[in-house]
């Protein structure tokens, strides 16, 4: 179920540069990178108990991060989006939401961004030296192209 | 005081007038205090990635004090194939092949999640029969997947018989799925717009034959494993995940419902034919490994109930909408989630109007269950760790993607 936009706007009124709108996936709150930790802490105290998903997307200029929040008590879902530059740093939200531990590591490694405040900021899926694979400037090579190198 | 101390408190306690065992008497290097005086060294052991009880290539780096686990690090990535990146180079009708190889024991749900996400961005109305066939395929696949879990979970305790029975039933289900989709496990059956093929002739009877014995067999299986006292002693009271921890770690599916949280995507966010079906959502109370066992056994019974309703009420009509040969959804963003065998499988899809997805994120429930192991396992014995990993039913194919 989608929460009322007015409720989310009232909840996040303290954070400037925040816009709340209804989009195809659901209600999306776009916040600035500096605010995202505080916004998630605010949402947690408002009853959003679970961070269900966290992922990134390369727009071609910067990385768009999506936090998918869910409240089981009120049966509502909210998407929180923010953007970070290539090679930028995001603040870990593991203290509010431990479910972010591994998805944050994965996103950081696959999009080439840094993690701050994470208890175990190692690579999750690939080994050292592998390029940030999900970035659009990292192409997929065919077997022939790899052999030819 | 001294007498009372010795009488009531027993041996090993320092009573008045006795020597402190930590201070050795003159002439001795250490006190003859027995086991209490020994110190144990913490060892770091690797469990996996080739350990038979980790259900794939999960590696647990365990710090043990004797037999007791002190700390755990979950190390994954041994099965990383880059499904999310590969999907950016597949056409929309071919992404299903990648989803099959994500969660390779229940591929139908992954395909369904992707199809639902793509359909949000397409101008297409899925026919009613396609919805029913999708639910039918999902429930058959859920049964097959839960049977694999049931068999291997028993293997973790050292039981053998139930594995053979579970594989027998699963083989009958895979025959049905093969008749439906043409493949045993890598189906690519559910595609944006509908499904690939209608039910073949005679499949309804084949499913009825399977269902006619399954409920009785399920009772027997529950007695065989769940009625076994050794199994109960191994499973009850270990690996407790209470409501707060389950929500904090983002658990979904049976792991969440075992903690008493009444949330099933099939009922809370209905999709496919589930709004028209009559089923219950089994719930646990304490959230230990036994509750997860009970919840999954209950889900199997509900799946069988749903399959019976689905073949009885299968509507007539087209099994797919009119979809162009090359699918080009509108540019935009979509998120669809389904209840897979392991929890909530979600697809976050970005389309840019071309024939390839711009970005596809695959939310696998196993990743969240696996990272919760770091919190649950400490304090248990190594032998219990095997049971707890088995009870969370993680699938490394969708964890590493």
- CATH-defined fold name of chain A: Beta Polymerase, domain 2
Global morphology of chain A? elongated
* Quaternary organization: heterodimer
Strand order of the biggest β-sheet of chain B? 1-2-3
Q: State the largest interface.
A: A-B, 32 and 40 residues
Terminal Cα span of chain B: 67 Å
Shape-level CATH architecture of chain A: 2-Layer Sandwich
CATH classification, class level of chain A: Alpha Beta
Report the radius of gyration of chain B as a whole number of Å. 26 Å
The number of distinct β-strands of chain A equals: 7
User: Percentage of helical residues of chain B?
Assistant: 40-55%
Portion in helices of chain A: 10-25%
Write the element-wise H/E pattern of chain A from the N-terminal end onward: HEEHEEEEHEH
The major sheet of chain B is characterized as: 3 strands, antiparallel
Strand content of chain B: 5-15%
Largest β-sheet summary of chain A = 5 strands, mixed
Total number of β-strand segments of chain B?
8
3D architecture notes:
The complex is a heterodimer of chains A (149) and B (401). With 149 residues, chain A is α/β, with parallel strands linked by helices. Chain A has a single domain (5-148), classed as NADH:ubiquinone oxidoreductase Nqo5 subunit (Beta Polymerase, domain 2). Chain A is 23% helix and 28% strand. Chain A has helices at residues 5-11, 36-45, 101-111, 143-148, and strands spanning 19-22, 27-30, 50-58, 63-71, 76-84, 89-91, 114-116. In chain A, strand 6 (89-91), helix 3 and strand 7 (114-116) form a beta-alpha-beta unit. The longest helix of chain A has 11 residues, at 101-111. Chain A is elongated. The model of chain A has no long low-confidence stretch (mean pLDDT 86). In chain B, a hairpin with a 4-residue loop joins strand 6 and strand 7 (344-351). Chain B has 15 helices and 8 strands. Helix content of chain B is 46%, strand content 12%. Chain B is an alpha+beta fold. In chain B, helix 5 runs antiparallel to helix 12 (289-312), helix 5 runs antiparallel to helix 14 (382-392) and helix 6 (161-181) packs antiparallel against helix 7. Chain A binds chain B through residues 23-26, 49-53, 55, 57-58, 66, 68, 72, 75, 79, 97-99, 101-103, 110, 120, 123-126, 133-134, 140, and chain B through 73-74, 76-77, 80, 82, 84-86, 88-89, 120-121, 247-250, 252, 261, 263, 268, 332-335, 344, 346, 348, 350, 358-359, 361, 363, 367-368, 370-371, 375, 400-401.
């Amino acid at each position: 179920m989608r929460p009322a936009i007015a409720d989310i706007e009232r909840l996040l009124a303290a954070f400037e540069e925040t816009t709340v709108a209804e989009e195809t996936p659901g209600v999306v709150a776009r916040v600035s990178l500096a605010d995202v930790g505080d916004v998630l802490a605010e949402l947690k105290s408002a009853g959003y108990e679970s961070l269900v998903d966290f992922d990134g997307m390369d727009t071609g200029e910067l990385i768009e991060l999506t936090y998918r929040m869910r409240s089981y008590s009120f049966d509502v879902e909210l998407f929180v989006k923010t953007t970070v530059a290539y090679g930028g740093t995001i603040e870990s939200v593991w203290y509010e939401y431990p479910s972010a531990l591994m998805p944050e590591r994965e996103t950081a490694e696959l999009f080439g961004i840094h993690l701050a405040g994470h208890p175990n900021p190692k690579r999750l899926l690939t080994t050292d030296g592998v390029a940030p694979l999900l970035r659009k400037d990292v192409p997929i090579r065919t077997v022939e192209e790899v052999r030819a190198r | 005081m001294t007498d009372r101390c010795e009488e009531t408190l027993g041996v090993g306690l320092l009573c008045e007038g006795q020597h402190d065992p930590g201070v050795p008497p003159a002439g001795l290097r250490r006190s003859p205090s027995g086991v209490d005086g020994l110190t144990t060294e913490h060892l770091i052991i690797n469990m996996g990635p080739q350990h038979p009880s980790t259900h794939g290539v999960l590696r647990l780096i365990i710090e043990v004090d004797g037999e007791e686990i002190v700390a755990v690090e979950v190390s994954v990535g041994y099965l990383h194939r880059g499904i999310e990146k590969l999907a950016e180079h597949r056409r929309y009708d071919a992404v299903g092949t990648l989803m099959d190889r994500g969660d390779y024991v229940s591929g139908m749900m992954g395909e369904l999640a992707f199809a639902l996400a793509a359909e949000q961005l397409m101008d297409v109305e899925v026919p009613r029969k396609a919805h029913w066939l999708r639910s039918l395929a999902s429930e058959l696949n859920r049964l097959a997947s839960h049977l694999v879990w049931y068999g291997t979970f028993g293997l973790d305790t050292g039981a053998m018989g139930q594995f053979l029975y579970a594989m027998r039933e699963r083989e009958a289900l895979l025959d049905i799925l093969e008749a439906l989709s043409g493949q045993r496990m890598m189906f690519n059956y559910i595609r944006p717009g509908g499904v690939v093929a209608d039910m073949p002739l005679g499949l309804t009877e084949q499913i009825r034959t399977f269902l006619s014995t399954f409920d009785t067999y399920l009772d027997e299986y529950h007695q065989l494993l769940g009625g076994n006292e050794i199994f109960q002693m191994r499973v009850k009271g270990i690996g407790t995940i209470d409501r707060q921890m389950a929500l904090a770690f983002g658990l979904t599916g049976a792991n969440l419902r075992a903690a008493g949280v009444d949330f099933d995507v099939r009922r809370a966010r209905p999709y496919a034919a589930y709004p028209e079906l009559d089923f219950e959502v089994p719930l646990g109370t304490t959230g230990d490994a036994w509750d997860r066992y009970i919840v999954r056994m209950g889900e199997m019974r509900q799946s069988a109930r749903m399959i019976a309703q689905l073949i009885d009420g299968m509507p007539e009509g087209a099994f797919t909408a009119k979809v162009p040969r090359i699918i080009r959804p509108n540019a935009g963003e979509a998120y669809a989630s389904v209840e897979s065998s392991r929890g909530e499988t979600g697809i976050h899809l970005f389309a840019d109007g071309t024939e390839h997805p711009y970005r596809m994120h695959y939310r696998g429930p196993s990743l969240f269950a696996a990272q919760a192991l770091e919190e649950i396992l400490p304090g248990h014995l190594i032998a219990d760790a095997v049971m707890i990993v088995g009870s969370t039913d993680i699938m490394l194919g969708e964890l590493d993607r």
